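FORM 12-B: Structure-to-Sequence Request
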């Protein structure tokens, strides 16, 4: 017969490991994981019946805690990458090629100030200084145009940071300078 202590370790450990895999909610496992560990250890030390429940509570609590620690490491790394790049700018070449009329939208250093231009077919190209994280280039076919669109963002050294293509009446393409961080 299991005691309340070992049952609690088992249940809390299982809940902790399940919640640990759910983003945002999983941080609750920072509390539940150690609690399951403590209850499981107390159950083992007191040598109460159903040691398996206590051991399962210890294992699931520890696993939940490990998953939470991994989430924190990933979150800190992502914040550092974004913080590093938010204030940085670099020279880029924004290029859109299309058949037929299309509209181009792009941002440079200020992510809140978007520039929009209508293009009558052919190529649109701009040398810009843009945010290395949030610079953007997009285009969409004008009403009635079923042609192909391609956007490309290239760094000053010739490295293509982002490229997207689409075709059809509602074709839309989007390229971001921050895509270079994902490679």
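FORM 12-B RESPONSE
SEQUENCE OUT:
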């Amino acid at each position: 017969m299991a005691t309340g202590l070992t049952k609690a370790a088992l249940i809390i450990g299982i809940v902790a490991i399940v919640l640990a895999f759910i983003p945002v909610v999983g941080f609750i496992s920072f509390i539940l994981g150690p609690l399951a560990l403590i209850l499981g250890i107390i159950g083992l030390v007191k040598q109460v019946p159903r040691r398996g429940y206590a051991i399962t509570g210890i294992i699931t609590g520890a696993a939940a805690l490990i998953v939470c620690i991994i989430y924190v490491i990933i979150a800190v790394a992502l914040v550092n990458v974004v913080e590093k790049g938010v204030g940085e700018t670099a020279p880029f070449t924004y290029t859109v090629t299309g058949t037929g009329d299309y509209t181009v939208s792009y941002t440079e250093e200020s992510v809140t100030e978007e520039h929009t231009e209508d293009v009558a077919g052919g190529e649109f190209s701009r040398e810009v200084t843009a945010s290395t994280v949030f610079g953007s280039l997009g285009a969409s076919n004008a009403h009635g145009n079923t042609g192909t669109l391609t956007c490309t963002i290239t760094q000053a050294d010739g490295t293509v940071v982002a490229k997207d293509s689409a075709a059809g009446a509602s074709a839309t393409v989007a390229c971001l300078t921050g895509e270079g961080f994902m490679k």
